Amino acid sequence: MKEEKSIVKVEIPVERITQLIFVIRGQKVMIDKDLADIYQVPTKYLNQIVRRNIERFPADFMFQMSQEEAESLRWQFATSNKRRGGRRYFPLVFTEHGVAMLSSVLKSKKAVTMNISIIRAFIKLREMLATNKDLAQRMDELERSQKDQGNRLESVYSIVKQLIETPIKSVEKMGFNVGKQ
Question: Which pLDDT band, with edges at 50, 70 and 90, does 177 fall under?
Fold first, then answer.
């Protein structure tokens, strides 16, 4: 009897994946090296597959980072010096749609499984951002309300202060005064 290979389904926690999503050029993206680690393939292999299927990756799905972008992110992840065997090219980054397209070109069950986790991470991040926008809007409204109330209290305080500080003049009796002259 032949033994069937069992596929071990290993899911990466969504929280871990969301830590690998960066904003570059105003887009939420993942770096080729991180995706290759998730898919458990060498980065060189992932990039080779992408370049062979470049028609599936328009500019809004994938782009190459510039030197400035790569340097600004360098402190966030360890990269080796290119003279010691590090990268020779700037990383490719993939938007949510580019990540979805990766599963079709990698064509492995592992890629499909990991892709589902990554898409869920993008969705969770989108939900968190929407929640944060609502929260920020509520905070702005609360601040405006507090400023209005503060201005009103300041007005009341200044009126009370004027009333306290103004001396009371002695009031002369009104009417006809009969008596001592």
Answer: low
